[in-house]
Amino acid sequence: xxxxxxxxxxxxxxxxxxxxxxxxxxxxxxxxxxxxxxxxxxxxxxxxxxxxxxxxxxxxxxxxxxxxxxxxxxxxxxxxxxxxxxxxxxxxxxxxxxxxxxxxxxxxxxxxxxxxxxxxxxxxxxxxxxxxxxxxxxxxxxxxxxxxxxxxxxxxxxxxxxxxxxxxxxxxxxxxxxxxxxxxxxxxxxxxxxxxxxxxxxxxxxxxxxxxxxxxxxxxxxxxxxxxxxxxxxxxxxxxxxxxxxxxxxxxxxxxxxxxxxxxxxxxxxxxxxxxxxxxxxxxxxxxxxxxxxxxxxxxxxxxxxxxxxxxxxxxxxx
Amino acid sequence: xxxxxxxxxxxxxxxxxxxxxxxxxxxxxxxxxxxxxxxxxxxxxxxxxxxxxxxxxxxxxxxxxxxxxxxxxxxxxxxxxxxxxxxxxxxxxxxxxxxxxxxxxxxxxxxxxxxxxxxxxxxxxxxxxxxxxxxxxxxxxxxxxxxxxxxxxxxxxxxxxxxxxxxxxxxxxxxxxxxxxxxxxxxxxxxxxxxxxxxxxxxxxxxxxxxxxxxxxxxxxxxxxxxx
Lengths: 319, 228
Known about the structure:
heterodimer; A: alpha+beta; Cyclophilin; 6-stranded antiparallel beta sheet; 4 helices; B: alpha+beta; Gyrase A, domain 2; 4-stranded antiparallel beta sheet; about 25% helix; elongated
């Protein structure tokens, strides 16, 4: 283990280590988990020159305040994030996302807030020195699984980092952000459980994201869906982005830390291409659902992956 | 054999074995699950990320960057069910349970009109089959209980049930791996850890398709095993 580390002066609301997730365990009740926003996660790692699945810090709304006690490192913050770097001489730098910054011993990084978005990421050159569980560092705090003993970051935690950075160059990438209120979905396995009128409403009425939203699920408020078959089904395996309708008729979208099996009918499933947009929406925002076909969803997702590759290819040194 | 194959989202597949819940159907689901898991771990279906059996469905999750549903459909359609085997992939377990930690035996005895000892003995004499594991890590759903013990969920679920609690509802028996809320009728508690992060190579005790028999232990033995 290296001797270089941060100390946590403020943990933030929900700060965890995440990579792409933990697979081949859903049949044992272990949800894949992993980063909420694959795009921001991937760009963060690429900026600091890491491999694509290196663990990063994910934060939500208010992020952490960290002090680099020993060592030198280079960080990149992605998402839409308000943050400052407080140098050891008290000089303050207002941070920009999607570029790297060198941190020297004694510097602090203060991640104040995510702006009009929910999740942000901090990657560092060489990565965090954390212990994976079953090939992933992703923290599933509900089941206390993952690095940091499966716990969210706490005040006074010591966060070890793998290398002492010697690289003096900084890098950035630029791209335009998309935002839209329409979320494209595919029909769910129990689509026919709902009345014709409800099916129509689902694709035309607005839904508001409620406060009951976290890494596991997003509860919506809007037109009640009328189930005409059965409000329960025999429990079956869950997929990310499944939109369940419990007996009260209000949709719940199952997110990255979803329960592995569930017994509510599923009217639809969010497409992979729009998942990153959806999870960045905050309580109070309104969304609409649009039905598309499978082949289109597959093509659109390929398009998203290509656009992420382009952004990564466009990483340039700052002169 | 599954009745139909469907997509679920753009990176999921449902192998649908029908709507009934019984050992025979679940056994078919689990045979396919074992076969698929073996193929994936051999590296034959690169891109498949998860395979989740439940009572009568097998859900497959995959990475759309590496594989698509039509390739997986082709694989599934080529499976010869007559050649799939259950026994060599399934384990038999004996799990200790202390019935002194029951919470509902008194009420159950009244509702079922069966005395407590008979409820316990019926539970002890049942060889349970693990239909599925999930919702949270390590949580087994096991059957089949004798129909004379069939009960509904509690009308008001408890806010807190201790980890290790053994509960029954209808023909099913479960064990709560973590302290959690719940509505099952609690008849005892096991000191055995169902999900142990200290054992990284095999953290989960029970797997779908395993069989389980319970063994009655005293409170003293329970305390001893808990501290081991």
